Amino acid sequence: MPSSTALYLAIPLACLLGSLITGLLGSKLGNKWSHRIPILGVGVAFALSAGFALPRVLKGLWLNTTLYTWGHIAHVPLVIGFLIDPLTVTMMVVVTFVSLMVHIYTIGYMKGDPGYRRFFSYISLFTFAMLMLVMANNFLQLFFGWEAVGLVSYLLIGFWYTRESAIFANLKAFLVNRVGDFGFVLGIAAIFSVFHSLDYATVFAHAHDLGAQVFSIAGGVSWRAITVICILLFIGAMGKSAQMPLHVWLPDSMEGPTPISALIHAATMVTAGIFMVARMSPLFELSPVARSVILVVGGSTAFFMALLALVQTDIKRVIAYSTLSQLGYMTVALGASAYAAAIFHLVTHAFFKALLFLAAGSVIIALHHEQDMRKMGGLRRYMPVTFVTTWIGALALAGIPPFAGFFSKDAIIDAVSRSTLPGADYAFATVLAGVFLTAFYTFRMVFMVFYGEPRMDAHARHHLHESPWVVTVPLALLAIPSVLAGMVLIRPLLFGSFFHGAIFVLPVDNALARMATHFHGVMAFIGASFASPPLYLALSGMATAWYMYIYRPAIPSLLVKRLHGVYEILCHKYGFDELYIDGFAAGARALGRFLWKIGDIELIDGVMVNGTARMIGRLARLGRRLQSGYIYHYAFAVILGLFVLMTFFLHHI
Amino acid sequence: MMATAMGFYKQAALTLAIWLPIVCGMVILGVGRRWPRSVRPLAAIGSATTFIATIPLWILFHASRSAMQFRETVAWIPAFHVNYALGVDGISLPLVLLTSLIGMIVVIAGWRVIKDRVPEYFAAFLIMEGLMIGVFCALDALLFYVFWEAMLIPMFLIIGIWGGPNRVYATIKFFLYTFLGSVLMLVALLYLYFQAGESFNILSYYHLHLGETAQILIFLAFLIAFAVKIPMWPVHTWLPDAHVEAPTGGSVVLAALMLKMGAYGFLRFSLPIVPLASHVLAGLMITLSLIAVVYIGLVALVQEDMKKLIAYSSIAHMGFVTLGIFLFNRFAMDGAIVQMISHGFVSAALFLCVGVLYDRVHSREISAYGGVVNRMPVFAAFMMLFAMANSGLPGTSGFVGEFLVILGAFKVNIWYAFLAATTLVSGAAYTLWMYKRVIFGPVTRPAVAALSDISMRETSFLLVLGMAVLVLGIWPFPLLHMMNATVHHLLWRPGVRLMAGAP
Questions:
Q1: How many of the other CB atoms lie within 10 Å of CB of A247?
Q2: Which helix (DSSP H) or strand (DSSP E) does residue B70 occupy?
Q3: What part of A 162-181 touches B (C-beta under 8 Å)?
Q4: What is d(CA A227, CA A295) in angstroms, rounded to the nearest whole number?
Q5: Which candidate, B313, B343, B356, B362, places its Cα nearest to that of B454?
Q6: For residue A348, which of A389, A386, A404 has the smallest C-alpha distance?
Q7: What is the pLDDT of residue A653?
Q8: What is the ipTM of this complex?
Q9: CB distance A211 to A194 below 8 Å
């Protein structure tokens, strides 16, 4: 193995090793070493990603190599291997950086928790799985990572396993994801049946020729293979990246400890679907139908989930719905063929959303695990670092220049407006409306938590203080890219040649290339935003939040009364949970019970098995009666037989 | 010296693997009454040496050859041309290894738990182990039939003597189901005997030219025998009853090994001997398999008894095996065989997990538990691994077979793959829902509060199976390699090529 491959391999393995050591030997190591070792592992991974992988890729040294052969079937090798290109390396740096921050933060957040060591073991394992996912050079390994991150997510949502709500949420998350994976596996199987390979490079190279095949679906209906493949793969992405209607698991995932909400359910795992579609751009580019679907799904998620964020009172749920909405933005960008913009937003979002979650966590521990915003208020006096960093995160999320989110979001909106696919107009309207909603719910949260009069009880207020340094330092370190990432990265990621060769866009669809001709630097980009609606929508969202939650705090309850019907719908989250739990889940159980009681017990056992046994029993009883043991019975039978035989012979002679 | 030893081993390896445990079982029966303390060590030595004796098979096996290896032929009943003929290929060898591994594990599992009729218990298991290895190695039809029927007897006794309260019903149901099936198989074997010019050599049947009607009748006769064993829907209802009543060791052998007999029968008899009928009736087989996956998946969801749930889950997983076999496609076939081995590990482990809980609480009801993780964290971690393997999580052995079968199915028909892939949802739903109700949650019952975590003995067998599940999931290459030539040969034999377009 070349030394460079060994170094790449060291990146995920450092995390795995940290996880294994802490997980298996944690009780012997004690708490101190149980966090030091995983942090060292992730630190090494980050250092190698940023200090070794990134410079190499920038120099043009990509890597596509096999690590080992997983299996060999009929001359088709199925392998585990790495593809290190700009897209991979972007994800690696983001994942390891956010993971490192979360690891450090966890020291403070999980202090005193009986599952302290287990937690570190899990998040390191997660980092390993996520790295394997993004570094894969084939669909098999992609699916490995895909399911492995899902497993760790399951374990972490149910981390506090004695809470009924937590173990309900983790089962729900796993099963909803499995519905997505159902599509994903079929997508992989479809790819395999068309391309006879699961290797990215092979598949992409033949996408154009072989993708034109058709699958006959039923009764003479046949669809283009590439469209079937892309839609099936996207169903997988809908599960993992929580797109409607498979979004229901993400809000409930907030039952897990806050650090993992930041790491897994905001910054990294949930963006795996986005990453996957971007990685598959050579396939998705060939299917406008699939991209139309993506536009509609993404647009709906961006808008309708933002609406739900308006009525949440739990601080983590506000951010969770915001994450759903922002994932919708990224999805829309994918549908508009602006894959680079989706990844750009993925990056900036990872920073500012992790920041917001960790800041929320800082608030939550300061209030002794109180998450209800109605019991907060006025915290800015007590928690200055958390307060300032939350503002930075909020401005980035709302898309105010020059914060990171502004650039990525503006790019997406611009790109969508240039898409001509069916559904693009709808998506454009939703993302535009979403800008106002985003700014509104974000600052509603900021104002409810940090401004106004403190609403917590006197005891809690007495104990209020800023969080320890292990919490605030990660906040500060995440605040830096939340400010700068947009300005620094917009040129290379969106309009430069960074992703050339890693992301494929047909020239006709290439909105970003057309936008690039109008790009004259960061300052000009900011300046141009003053002439377009998104900025004003964002500002008016902020202003409305200020008006309703600071200037006239009586308005929200008035509005709830006035718009009672709408409010109820939003509080019930459009009824998805009811449909899934009382409809599908209960329906499956009822069907299972029916098949069991009627099919297995009544029909198969009752009629066939025991029926046969009964019939044999009856025959046996009959036979038993013949053998009564009385001589005169037998004598009678002999005479009767003689009589019958005689009649028979006499008639035939 | 070394070479002669190896030569001698090659001559007698399979006989050793078959008779070592049987003789050991006999010895236990003989001395067990007089020296009760020697029973467990003898059983351990017997099963361990059997396992060790089978390992060189793997090392010396030539994976590139599709022909039978380690062959032994001795005339047995010359008047009827019956031979004591043994041999293994890439399909039977993994099953032999699985049997000897599981044989060792059940001995450890029964070590402390069995207090009643101890010598008979261990003897029954050892004898059964030898007979099962015999089934996988026999190349003579009559020898096969003898092993096939004989292995039922110890199992019948195990359930009937060491079983639960309703054991008599379960035993009779089990025995009648399987016995009725195999009688028809005997008829088919006798027909083949005469067709092949009075020969019981199974390999000679592969070259018979049989008409379509004859093929279909033979296929159906075999089908009844094999379908009951697997079990396929709708002849599956004996399995949940048998599992519920069987002691833990019995369940382990039943699920891990006996269910494989039926699938092995398809591979050894149906496909090579009556290829035309196998193709003609493939649609029926695929339909029954998919019903097993979907229907049984739903039935498993509503089970309240852990053993019943795992039993139903076994049926659904075996549905993947039969599906893979009858798709006549390389990936699906490989997947089916991997699934057989994987299911051997996973179902064994899950039944052992239930056994661990049952030994402490004496209940199999899911509702009798809750919050077990609070008292048994190590056990909970192991069971999580096996639950995930049962749900087909990548990185565990459970994934490999299902994934390959789905890949193969898609090539044949999109809807086969669609229905098969529903297991991703249903398998996770029934397994993890059970896990949630048993393991997670607060401790609410005194019986759970009194639990203690697994002992060294229990850890040892869970660890072995856990490693097996992980290794096969992360690196199935050795297994796939071992069966490569055999499967290739099986699918490309002229008769089998009839329908299959691609390998």
A1: 28
A2: strand B69-77
A3: 162, 164, 167-168, 171, 174-175, 178-179, 181
A4: 15
A5: B356
A6: A404
A7: 58
A8: 0.91
A9: yes
